[in-house]
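Retro notes (design track)

What went well: tokenization of the new backbones is finally stable.
What didn't: we kept losing track of which sequence belonged to which structure.
Fix going forward: every design gets posted as structure first, then sequence, in one message. First example under the new rule, 896 residues:
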């Protein structure tokens, strides 16, 4: 504090900007001052301050200041430093890209109409923003009246005009159907209309509507009628009594002590375009100072109006000078007390109060999940700070195309500009431990070298894994000579591991700190997989170039038609015909992907996929030694054995070791085809989910008919509350559900993908509810399940007959999931054998070359299969694999 005291004595009495830093050197606040000496000293005087201001002061460990020539220069410098440092206690407006504008560049030879969400100072004219009215509807009006081209880019000459000219929507300058002077008159008319001037154009559209109706072109007449409605909508937005000023922004600010809000009422061309709202997270620091807000706002919109209306008077001389220097335009800043401008302020005020009232809970929840989650992790791990979190993940397939990702979260939010990706250089094979060591070593070495983009150490590093992964990663920091706290997040049980501590830290599933760690880890995984797939695609291209007779031109033609999976399934003739390449080159490509192999040829079915419950598992939910031996022999013969189940990856985990899916990792299907995972780590490679809104509607619709509802999302499975029935069910599948109370309310707020909803109800109600669901939710698939597990939910003497309806996205089923796995391995579906016992297995049985129903399946399922195997309790899967793949022609009693 003595350092601060000395600096306070030396502060100048000039304009400038001050920069507050915490103990780690992080910038936490940037402010401007007319007199630096007076403003900065106020923070350190022993007077009562608002809570947030005092919290900021308590965190100040040092400060710097920059002297400026004028207050205007201080305003500009403050705005630039806030953008650069993004301090925690400053207001930080997000870039608003939601409201569209119409862009016309009158300097072009034949200007076109474009839609953009970013205003630039590039000499073009921008009209908007369009809020509450479709910008495309406005453009359709302009086309009908002024017949301006909408094709993008520079005008290209054409032999004949396009369809727009044929239906009287374009003057066709591309075919010289009009001269430049005529076209520019049309452009000027359109710009005059968009600016709020010009004659009423509704008469032109009314005449066109009448002509279309007379010609019985009723579809065109309806289109003109809709355009008239657009014009009526625009007319209703006209604001009178504004005088010559047609472009006005009216700002209003309010707060409730915890959060604040700013609303701006936008008038363009004399028309009310709408209201935009912005939340203020630090109202006590902000204090309604619009001289801080406005430079950020207009540097974001890049559009300065003729007049700015504010609610309370203040000295705005420096603000006007700032705008004049930046925009080369001097706006009028007024404080209206009556008239139409006061009504605009009142409109902004009403919107502001309503927005703050409705947004407070959402803002608090967002704060809890971001900054609040960082504070939670800081407390849990005893860290000085958890503001900057980095996470690293490795991605490869059998050691090929090894890559790593590094993602950065600041204050609980992803900062994608700081993401980094790495190609593993020194590690042989699939060794994630050494790959992580290499990645972190390179990151820390670049930090020590002061390389741009690496010159800040994180407050916390998250590793995907347990104690061993954390230990290996920590050695990289030790060897380079840096100290960074690290934790590992083990995905199976979401346990947190610290270095040197074999006992994990366990947080509740709904703990915001844990949810932040999960988001960081999942984002690192997504980014690593994306990079891995990119490299794999490049390798595919280079593979093709290495084939005899295949050059760059041929590769380009092949890539336009085929990918790594479809080319394996194609014959040489198909490759030649579809890609349009020489037959010799196609034959060489086919030969490259189909090397001769006696083992592979001997197997009629090269891929076997089995359901678990009621199929591979017996009624005791185990697999016999005989079946395991057959699976081993099938693998030894060159076959690929995988699982296609309705269970979640977490539930599948208990069978990975018994089935040797860790020793022989494969892509497997979970959640009825909604998710494919690699059994080596059970990480999702592909997910098909349903929207939060659909899930909310579904849960509300089904609730009155169900005994229990389950919802699977990225965090596991959620139920309303547990009882004896749910305990028995989840104990059998070895999954621990989360109790969330109101399921629909939870579905509305959950941030991870919603994969599946399961409805448990009485058997007699299944058909009627399924029919109602199909009619109400065409975007979903509904599958009735006959899983033996349901029997565990029935109490002795209870008349309740448990049945299950599984609800998934219409874009997913086991058949599609199995097809994606077969494509991954380059196996045609004709060489796939699939086993199942339930209705949810039917798409898979139909898709496979040989669909096998178990002997314990219902008759309706057996009739849809190619073959019926013995029951799940009689090793039906093993006997069928022996019969078709291992040359054991079992007959009679042996195959029963």
């Amino acid at each position: 504090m003595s350092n601060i005291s000395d600096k306070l004595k030396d502060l100048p009495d000039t304009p400038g900007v001050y920069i507050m830093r915490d103990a780690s050197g992080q910038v936490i606040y940037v402010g401007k001052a007319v007199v630096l000496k007076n403003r900065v000293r106020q923070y350190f005087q022993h007077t009562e301050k608002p809570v947030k201001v005092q919290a900021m002061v308590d965190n100040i460990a040092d400060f710097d200041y920059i002297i400026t020539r004028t207050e205007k220069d201080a305003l500009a410098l403050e705005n630039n430093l806030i953008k650069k440092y993004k301090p925690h206690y400053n207001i930080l407006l997000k870039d608003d890209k939601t409201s569209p504008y119409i862009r016309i560049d009158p300097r072009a030879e034949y200007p076109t109409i474009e839609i953009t969400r970013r205003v630039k100072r590039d000499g073009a004219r921008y009209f908007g923003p369009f809020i509450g009215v479709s910008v495309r509807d406005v453009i359709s009006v302009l086309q009908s009246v002024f017949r301006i081209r909408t094709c993008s880019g520079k005008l290209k000459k054409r032999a004949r005009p396009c369809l727009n000219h044929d239906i009287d929507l374009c003057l066709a300058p591309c075919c010289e159907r009009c001269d430049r002077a005529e076209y520019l008159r049309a452009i000027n008319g359109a710009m005059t209309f968009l600016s709020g001037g010009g004659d009423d154009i509704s008469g032109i559209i009314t005449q066109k509507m009448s002509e279309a109706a007379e010609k019985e072109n009723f579809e065109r007449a309806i289109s003109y009628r809709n355009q008239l409605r657009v014009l009526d909508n625009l007319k209703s937005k006209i604001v009178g009594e504004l005088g010559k000023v047609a472009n006005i922004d009216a700002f209003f600010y309010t707060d409730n002590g915890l959060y604040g809000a700013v609303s701006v009422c936008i008038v363009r061309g004399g028309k009310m375009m709408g209201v935009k709202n912005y939340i203020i997270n630090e109202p006590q620091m902000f204090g309604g100072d619009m001289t801080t807000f406005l430079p950020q706002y207009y540097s974001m919109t890049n559009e300065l109006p003729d007049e700015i209306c504010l609610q309370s008077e203040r000295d705005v001389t420096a603000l006007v000078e700032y705008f004049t220097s930046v925009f080369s335009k001097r706006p009028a800043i007024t404080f209206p007390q009556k008239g139409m401008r006061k009504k605009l302020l009142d409109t902004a005020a009403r919107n502001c109060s309503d927005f703050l009232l409705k947004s407070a809970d959402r803002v608090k929840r967002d704060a809890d999940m971001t900054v609040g989650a960082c504070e939670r992790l800081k407390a849990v791990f005893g860290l000085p700070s958890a503001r900057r979190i980095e996470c690293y993940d490795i991605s490869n397939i059998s050691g090929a195309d090894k890559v790593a990702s590094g993602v950065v979260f600041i204050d609980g939010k992803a900062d994608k500009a700081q993401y980094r990706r790495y190609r593993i250089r020194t590690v042989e094979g699939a060794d994630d431990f050494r790959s992580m060591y290499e990645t972190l070593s390179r990151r820390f070495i670049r930090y020590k070298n002061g390389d741009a983009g690496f010159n800040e150490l994180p407050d916390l590093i998250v590793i995907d894994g347990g104690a061993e992964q954390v230990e290996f990663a920590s050695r990289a920091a030790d060897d380079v000579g840096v100290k960074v706290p690290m934790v590992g997040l083990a995905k199976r049980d979401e346990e947190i591991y610290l270095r040197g501590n074999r006992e994990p830290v366990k947080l509740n599933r709904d703990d915001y700190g844990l949810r932040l760690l999960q988001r960081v880890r999942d984002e690192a995984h997504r980014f690593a997989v994306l990079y891995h797939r990119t490299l794999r695609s490049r390798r595919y291209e280079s593979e093709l170039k290495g084939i005899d007779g295949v050059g760059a031109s041929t590769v380009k033609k092949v890539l336009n038609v085929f990918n790594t999976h479809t080319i394996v399934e194609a014959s040489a003739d198909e490759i030649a015909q579809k890609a349009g390449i020489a037959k010799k080159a196609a034959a060489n490509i086919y030969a490259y992907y189909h090397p001769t192999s006696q083992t592979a040829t001997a197997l009629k079915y090269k891929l076997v996929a089995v359901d678990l419950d009621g199929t591979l598992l017996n009624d005791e939910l185990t697999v016999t030694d005989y079946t395991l031996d057959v699976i081993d022999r099938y693998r030894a013969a060159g076959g690929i054995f995988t699982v296609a189940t309705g269970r979640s990856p977490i539930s599948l985990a208990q069978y990975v070791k018994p089935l040797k899916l860790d020793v022989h990792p494969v892509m497997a299907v979970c959640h009825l085809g909604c998710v494919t995972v690699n059994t080596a780590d059970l990480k999702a490679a592909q997910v098909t989910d349903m929207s939060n809104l659909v899930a909310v509607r579904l849960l509300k619709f089904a609730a009155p008919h169900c005994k229990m509802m389950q919802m699977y999302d990225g965090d596991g499975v959620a139920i309303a509350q547990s009882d004896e029935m749910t305990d028995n069910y989840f104990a059998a599948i070895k999954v621990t559900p989360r109790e969330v109370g109101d399921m629909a309310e939870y579905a509305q707020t959950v941030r991870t993908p919603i994969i599946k909803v399961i409805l448990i109800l009485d058997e007699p109600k299944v058909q009627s509810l399924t029919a109602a669901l199909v009619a109400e939710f065409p975007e979903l698939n509904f599958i009735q399940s006959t899983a033996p597990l349901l029997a565990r939910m029935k109490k002795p003497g209870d008349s309740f007959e448990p049945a299950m309806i599984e609800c998934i996205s219409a874009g997913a089923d086991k058949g599609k999931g199995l097809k994606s796995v077969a494509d991954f391995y380059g196996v045609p579906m004709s060489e796939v054998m699939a086993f199942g016992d339930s209705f949810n297995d039917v798409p898979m049985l139909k898709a496979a070359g040989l669909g096998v129903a178990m002997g314990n399946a219902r008759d309706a399922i057996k009739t849809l299969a190619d073959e019926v195997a013995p029951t799940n309790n009689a090793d039906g899967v093993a006997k069928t694999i022996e019969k078709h793949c291992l040359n054991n022609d079992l007959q009679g009693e042996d195959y029963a």
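Added context from the reviewer: The first helix runs from residue 2 to 9.
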